[in-house]
Amino acid sequence: MTEDRTTESRTAAESTTEGRTAEERATGERTAEQRVTVDVPDLSLVVLVGATGSGKSTFAARHFKPTEVISSDFCRGLVSDDENDQSASKDAFEVLHYIVGKRLAAGRLTVVDATNVQSEPRKELVALAREHDVLPVAIVLDILEDVCAARNAARPDRAALPRRVIQRHQRELRRSLRHLEREGFRKVHVLRGTARTDSAEVVRERRFNDLRHLTGPFDIVGDIHGCRSELESLLTRLGYDLVRDGAGRPVDAAHPEGRTAVFVGDLVDRGPDSPGVLRLVMGMVAAGHALCVPGNHENKLGRFLGGRQVKVAHGLAETIEQLEREAEQDPEFRERVREFIGGLVSHYILDGGALVVCHAGLPEKYHGRTSGRVRSHALYGDTTGETDEFGLPVRYPWAEDYRGRAAVVYGHTPTPTATWLNNTICLDTGAVFGGKLTALRWPERELVDVPAERVWYEPLRPLVSEAPGGADGRPLDLADVTGRRVVETRHLGRVAVKEENAAAALEVMSRFAVEPRRLVYLPPTMAPCATSKEEGYLEHPAEAFAAYRADGVRQVVCEEKHMGSRAVVLVCRDAEVARERFGVPDGVPGAVYTRTGRPFFDDTEVATRLLERLGRCVAGAGLWEELTTDWLLLDAELMPWSLKAQGLLRNQYAAVGAASGAVFPGALAALESAAARGLDVAELLGRQRERAEDAEAFTEAYRRYCWPVGPAAGSADGTDGDVLDGIRLAPFQILAAEGRSLATVPHDEQLAMIDRLVAEDAGVGGSGVLLAPTRRIVVDTGDESSVAGGTRWWLDLTAAGGEGMVVKPLQAYVRGEDGKLVQPGIKCRGREYLRIIYGPEYTRPENLARLRIRHLGHKRSLALREYALGLEALDRLAGGEPLWRVHEAVFAVLALESEPVDPRL
Question: Positions of the region Disordered (predicted)?
Answer without folding.
Answer: 1-33
